[in-house]
UniProtKB/TrEMBL annotation:
This is Histidinol-phosphate aminotransferase. It catalyses: L-histidinol phosphate + 2-oxoglutarate = 3-(imidazol-4-yl)-2-oxopropyl phosphate + L-glutamate. The keyword Cell wall biogenesis/degradation does not apply. The modification N6-(pyridoxal phosphate)lysine is found at K233. Residues 1-19 have a biased composition (Basic and acidic residues). The keyword Transferase applies.
Length: 374
């Protein structure tokens, strides 16, 4: 078919999508890519074999739809959380989808939507705002302190004023790496219940990398609180697309109202189950990455950069001279073969913890940059 000169805005698309760009970091072909918070370690060969085995079994039944309720997978995810996140949950508390982005989308389809609003405390994970827009949910940008922690009083005030239907709390936060304390989450939960009541979504995509325990125990007795997790980071399985949530069983029942039937393919379920069998090995890589993350923080500070304390598998560093300065630094680092992320936080860049060799290459590049700039 020949391509016409029609552009997106010439099509009868929804008004709120006009003039907008799709989300996505540049996927550039450079030697060291530390820009998308991926896990640098490929899955171990024994796990690759196990995936092949499980997928082969699943393939024999691909003429059938998958288990719509993903019972075996949710049971294993519940066991994983119970074992590692300090709180007992069962299959009924857990729901899974294609990446935590889809979990968030299902939550917004259920609890947000036209005439409703969601709030996040920015800078934070920009997809919360974008998925809100995609589901017709109004987006409110809440404040943060200068040091990127959540200003509890200001956040409570914003919740009381806007009475949002959904509140996002990202801990550890992306792109800053900042963990949120249980006391802050509880204060915002109380504020959100007093104002509406609304659903509080704790996005713990980077939870396994934190110095602090998971916020999972907070869901106990709080039916309007949801914890969202992913296998993209700690499990080193970004390509798998598997995210999940833990909450009161009523929340799990509620998202059934919007989920597409058979949304999670049998191949996805089989692969995720295989990965869960190798949890201990994969969590071993997480320990190595935490050590590397702490090394990046210390060495960046020793070189003379400002660094935000990080509980994630990435580090926010600066300060550069505003948005132009961070963009220029991003380019200079790229010129040396290392891709980091310019998230649009003026004066700051974000680097994902890679292998020790990748991190060395990054540190050499920023040492060079510091020399040039001082
Ligand atoms: N939440 C946060 C805070 C993230 O940074 C990301 C990925 N960058 C996600 C959710 C989505 O991850 P996925 O869809 O791969 O599970």
């Amino acid at each position: 078919m020949t391509r016409t000169t029609t552009r997106i805005d010439d099509l009868p698309i929804r008004d709120e999508l006009r003039g907008k760009s799709p989300y996505g970091a540049p996927q550039l072909d450079v030697p060291v890519r530390l820009n998308t918070n991926e896990n640098p370690y490929p899955l171990p060969e024994a796990l690759v074999e196990r995936i092949a085995e499980r997928v082969r079994d699943a393939a024999r039944q691909l003429n059938r739809y998958p288990d719509r309720d993903a019972v075996e997978l949710r049971t294993e995810l519940a066991r994983y959380l119970t074992r590692t996140a300090g709180h007992e949950v069962a299959m009924e508390n857990v729901w899974a989808a294609n990446g935590s982005n889809e979990v968030i989308q299902q939550l917004l389809q259920t609890f947000g939507g036209p005439g409703r609003t969601a709030i996040g405390f920015e800078p934070s994970y920009s997809m919360h705002g974008l998925i809100s827009r995609g589901t017709g949910t109004g987006w409110i940008s809440g404040p943060r302190n200068e040091d990127f922690t959540i200003d509890v009083a200001a956040a409570e005030k914003a919740i009381a004023e806007h009475r949002p239907d959904v509140v996002f709390i990202t801990s550890p936060n992306n792109p800053t790496g900042t963990a949120v304390g249980a006391d802050t989450v509880l204060a915002l939960y109380e504020a959100a219940q007093a104002a509406k009541p609304s659903l509080v979504v704790v996005d713990e995509a980077y939870g396994e990398f934190s110095h602090h325990p998971s916020l999972l125990p907070l869901i106990e007795g709080r039916p309007n609180m949801v914890l969202s997790r992913t296998m993209s980071k700690a499990f080193g399985a970004a390509g798998l697309r598997l995210g999940y949530l833990a909450a009161d069983p009523a929340v799990v029942d509620a998202v059934q109202l919007v989920r597409l039937p058979y949304h999670l393919s049998s191949v996805t379920q089989a692969t995720a189950l295989a990965a869960l069998e190798h949890t201990d090995t994969l969590l071993g890589y997480v320990e190595q990455l935490k050590t590397e993350r702490d090394r990046l923080v210390n060495e960046l500070r020793a070189i003379g950069y400002e660094v935000t304390d990080s509980d994630a598998n990435f580090v926010q560093f600066g300060r550069f001279d505003g948005a132009a300065g961070s963009h220029e630094a991003w380019q200079r680092i790229l010129d040396q073969g290392v891709l980091v992320r310019d998230n649009g936080v003026p004066g700051w860049l974000r680097v994902t913890a890679g292998t020790p060799e990748e991190n060395d290459a990054f540190l050499d590049a920023v040492r060079e940059l510091k020399k040039e700039q001082s």
